[in-house]
Structures
1.
Amino acid sequence: MYERLARLMRFGMVGGGVTLIAYLLFLGAIAGGLHYLVASVLAWAGGLCVGFVAHRHLTFGDRNGWRGQIWRYIAVYLLQLLFGTATLAALIDLAGLAPWLAYPVNIVFTATFSYVLMSRMVFRPAADVQRA
């Protein structure tokens, strides 16, 4: 129980840093005149690169082979991109939020989605892998 809570806290800290980087990329891209969906994809790509290394080592402390993990991580992030883009569009186009506000609100949805998938599909603790 304690380890799962500690891992969730590490996920929040690492994810917060990765999200800050992605958000700054997003703001820069929309300030540069890009459509919010294009800006979101660019921010996502930046988060993908930084996030894999940070989550692998700091959040999950995983030392298993990274080659298989990278493909599962990319798959999870592609799912997150689809989910996050749909919810971002809903927040902006349907709920009427400004892009600068919708992006951080959307993080609540995408962070939860990512944590569940990463902890179960990408960086499973060794004890879980042995039980499977």
Note: The mean pLDDT is 85.
2.
Amino acid sequence: MRVPPAVYVLGSSIFVLGTTEFMIAGLLPTIATDLDVSIPDAGLLISGFAIGMTIGAPVMAVATLRLPRKATLLAAAAVFLAGHVVAALAPTYELLMAARVVTAVATGAFWAVAAVVTVRISPPGTTARALAVLVGGLTLSNVLGVPAGTWVGQQLGWRAAFWAVAGLAVLTTLAVVALVPKSAGAASEPPRVRDELRVFRGRRIWLALATTATFQAAMFAAFSYFAPLLTDVAGLDEADVPLVLALFGLGSFIGITIGGRIADRGLFLNIFGSLVALAVTMSVLALVSGSTAGAVAAVFAVGVAGFSIAPGLNARVFVVAGDAPTLASSVNTSAFNVGNTVGPWLGGAAISAGWGYVAPVWLAAGLALAGLVLALTAWAHEQRHERALAAAAQPRTAPAPVGAAASTPPVACDA
């Protein structure tokens, strides 16, 4: 079974959305000079976007729950486009920050709804592969979009980078209009907030979200400090660091593609294997970090191993959420952003403690093992959940005669 063309359109949209999140990192000096603010203040434009994504995704998921999915996608795309136009024209730092936050909220809303639409329109047996296309769009944005946006900003001014992303947003929005079915993602009954919230009463969803956040923290605890690791420890020339990071991105894309196929055969097989592989490759990177060739090869391997888990993590949330996936999907997006925030902070704390640039890599290996423990706990809980469902589905036996021993009461099933 093939992934529908509409999914690739949504993946292209995610590519544009992902480009804008980190593109600004390479433009901070120019923005700071133009708007007369400090570099740290300019850096808050990245934090503002992350906060907007973390909070905005679930809020917008609830606010647009009963709207048609395609209409929600187009509305989010329109707000995203408007946010970039305002950012490109912003005369002050405050207005640029506001535009970034609004854009982030629209990005979170689009991502959550796009994931639901992807699952609903994909044939059976292709769900994880289809979700891998979405995550692949995000990965390609880091490999191609972010460097290209940074280059445009450096050559033509930081405002030109925002205009370029706005232009791409117009193209992907037109593709959504043309190729995403009008009824895409429609449920048999109108969704209700009460049903969406009910998913969060059980431990299954919280174990899934905790695994997502822990994995992302592991990845970004190390990735955030790859540049100084490569230059100060591995002895790589600073000019070659972008090439190695691009190699990491290529590995991530390969990992996502492979992981999607494995996850369609078994979600926990994908999750367990990826977390073990991530812990192993991080450990190898720490051990060979003194060698330039070894470090470069290990960075590529980390990209393949780490991001192969992404399809499984996303698909797992949809399995747990059942018929009420929108809010759960948006909160999973927030869980990724929590990892994006916590991971670099932990890695920076390890460096500040005087443990060196290799310390975040060992920390990442430990976090990957912590994620594996969470995943194993989730798997064990899932086995109990399925046994409870099977027991509840068994036909009731005839009433016992008076005076017979009372039977053991049925075990309650955790949602």
Note: The mean pLDDT is 84.
3.
Amino acid sequence: MTPDVSLHLFAQLLWQAVVVSAPLLLTVLIVGLLVSVFQVVTQIQEMSLTFIPKLLASVAVLVFAGPWMLSQLVAYSSALIRTIPRLV
């Protein structure tokens, strides 16, 4: 395996990680921002107020986007496994 192939595989791996984690990370970011704005406006500084909405949003995203995320990972893994004979 040449260094170019290794770098290409690593780049594909990183891109796949970004694509699969983006829905969850963006949702938690948006919910956290909205809760922070709510806390600033109401001057409520409760720690559970920041944690619970993020947790609920994370679970909702995993329930709805989980099958898509899993199919993306399975497709990437199977494509990678199919290319192993050509890499050796």
Note: The helical segments are 3-42, 47-87.
4.
Amino acid sequence: MVFSSVSFLFFFLPLVLALYFVVPFKFKNMILLLFSLVFYAWGEPRYVVLMIISILINYGYGIWMDRAEQNEKKKVFILTFAIVVNVGLLAFFKYANFIVDIINSALSMSLQLQQIPLPLGISFYTFHALSYLIDVYRKNEKAQRNLFKLSLYITFFPQLVAGPIIRYNSIAEQLSKRVFSSAQFAGGIQRFILGLSKKMLLANPLGLVADTIFMTSATDLSTGSAWIGIIAYTLQIYFDFSGYSDMAIGLGKMFGFEFAENFDYPYISRSISEFWRRWHISLGSWFRDYVYIPLGGSRVARWKVYRNLIIVWSLTGFWHGASWTFIAWGLYYGILITLEKAGLEKMLSKLYPLNHVVVLLLIMIGWVFFRADNFGYATDFIASMFHMHGNELSDAQALSLLYMNWYYFIIAIIVATPIFLNLQKLRFNRWVSRIQAVASFVFYFSLFAEVILYLINSTYNPFLYFRF
């Protein structure tokens, strides 16, 4: 089940909201837990058992670690063992086939392994479990003795299958105590509609453009088509993923939870480092706090800082998928950020405002590797972008796609900047504020109506991050 589906919008969500606000507070977590399991089972009924097993073993590890509070060596052993088990489960389902392919290629063997389907959201709920265990080990939080509360933390449906990655220490108190208000609920509805609109009205149309281009042989693309394709994908992936994060944050607000922001207008960045402080913030901060800093962070010798960056970004690429293109994408950013730490960032700052253009160009080159199925296609696509195949500068495909979709590109580029956010922050007198409130209601109602019309008339509705 996806948020942008009729079954979710008109059946699942109204039902869970109705029951949630009818029952006393002591039963609210149970309602959310039951519906979260139903939400997951709707798409992956076979793997609900796997998720429940993951919850049970991590519940046990947390209590075991808590009881060994005075024995540091034992705590380290328990945490290490728990990490191995969690990462092992993730590696088996996500990387087993990839590892077998590597072995066969390297050793000229013919090992056979039945294709293992990837359980929905396993990367996200595994990182949630690891966050909980590491927070308990660091004494940032006590081990959760209530199994249902820990289960809700891991399974809560707004962030279950595509994030954002919610830290246990940021939500532990909210599992026991939440403040409800009509303003928070209304804000949640607005945030959900905004995210839904990003997804349906911008990401989906731009995704069709990107798919059309990326289904064409890279060597046959004109330079114009290649640029239209990568710009479309650059905007699609932002509105797809940030839209999902907006919906998750909005749903959380409806149920009384406050989640941290996951995107902060990343395409206005003036350096690659800044881009990654603004893009998928929850993943970047997770790797920073649980991998980069434990490795020594930036408080070590210069070469070790560079080593730490390469390790973190290799893991970031590998986390996204079992493919050499994802690993290359991670290494690409590791190298760029290492170069920035070595002085490139200062050089870029001197190019203002051209540094913004350079950064966007580097980001789009990275997205080519992220989107392409293999290295050959990625390198050929980049060659077509820079007119290295002797291909045409433009062709009928480029002109047709641009003519039919130019308004999506313009709207998406504007919305990808904080222009509207800044307008909302302007202070008006009381009468203008009332008019603004009415206009806001009409705006969000119109957006939702437009989404419903699109949903009824279109069958194209992918979520890019579901495969991670």
Note: The first helix runs from residue 6 to 22.
